[in-house]
Design a protein that fits this description.
Elements (H helix, E strand, L loop, with lengths): L1 E6 L3 H11 L5 E7 L2 H11 L3 E4 L8 H6 L6 E6 L5 H4 L4 E6 L4 H23 L8 E6 L2 E6 L3 E7 L2 E6 L5 E2 L3 H7 L5 E3 L4 E4 L3 E6 L5 E5 L4 E4 L1 H11 L2
Parallel strand pairs: 1-2, 1-3, 3-4, 4-5
Antiparallel strand pairs: 6-7, 8-9, 8-12, 9-10, 11-12, 13-14, 14-15
Helix pairs in contact: 5-6
């Protein structure tokens, strides 16, 4: 079952979408809202695997909602505007549907979501990758066989993830969320929506105004920890 949340400010649009989704037994609607602030609360509380997200919402855009999340669920955008399609794929986007939603397009989007989440769920069942393991990455004409312990950090690049080790930074066709499921959370820590850091490379931290935190790596690289993650990181690393 795919646990899904509908975020749409039009009550009628939510009702129409729920009616269409009744045809998909693999989808369970666990909540709905037309409020951006409530959407953030529901995502945090319910941890949906998939969200149906409108772009234009009172107070915040759908993109702004996603920017405040450290881990973004799979997203199917549903909007009346087509000019945001390219931007939408900077996020964990499964599909981009225009209103009024056509059943055949929704069917295709749900199939994409199901395939994506089946892959992600497979990762959770596997033994986590730790420092004693290696991963193989093919980036264009180049191939890398990387020691996990040598990876400084993973960086989100839309539907790809960039792996930083030594002087190299190849791309692999997995989202950062998929990567998070494969690695040991005791050895790598997600500090914001864009980065997962190898804890062995962290040299020190510095508190910032507003509750944020900077992490400095032994290589001289600096990263800002999101406000949502700052307290967790301080506790985790005993800073």
């Amino acid at each position: 079952m795919i646990r899904a949340l509908i975020i749409e400010d039009s009550r009628l649009a939510r009702k129409e979408l729920k009616e269409l989704l009744k045809a998909f037994s693999q989808i369970t609607i666990i909540g709905e809202t037309g409020s951006a602030s409530e959407a953030l609360e529901l995502i945090s509380l319910l941890e949906p695997e998939l969200i149906f997200l409108d772009i234009h919402l009172p107070g915040k855009s759908g993109f702004e909602i996603l920017q405040e999340l450290d881990r973004v669920p799979a997203v199917i955008f549903i909007t009346a505007f087509d000019q945001y399609a390219l931007k939408s794929f900077e996020y964990n986007t499964i599909d981009y549907l225009l209103k009024p939603v056509v059943f055949e397009r929704l069917e295709l989007a749900v199939a994409k979501a199901e395939k994506y989440l089946q892959t992600t769920n497979t990762f959770t069942k596997k033994e986590k990758l730790g420092f004693g393991d290696r991963i193989f990455v093919k980036d264009g004409s180049k191939c890398y066989f990387i020691k996990v312990e040598d990876i400084r950090y993973f960086q989100s690049k839309g539907n790809y993830t960039q792996i930083h080790f030594g002087v190299n930074s190849p791309l692999m066709l997995k989202t950062l969320q998929q990567v998070a499921y494969t690695i040991d959370s005791q050895q790598f820590v997600q500090i914001n929506r864009q980065h997962i850091i190898n804890v062995n490379f962290i040299s020190n931290s510095k508190g910032l105004i507003g509750g944020r935190l900077n992490l400095n790596l032994s290589t001289g690289e600096t990263f800002q920890v999101s406000r949502r993650q700052a307290n967790k990181i301080k506790e985790y690393l005993s800073f």
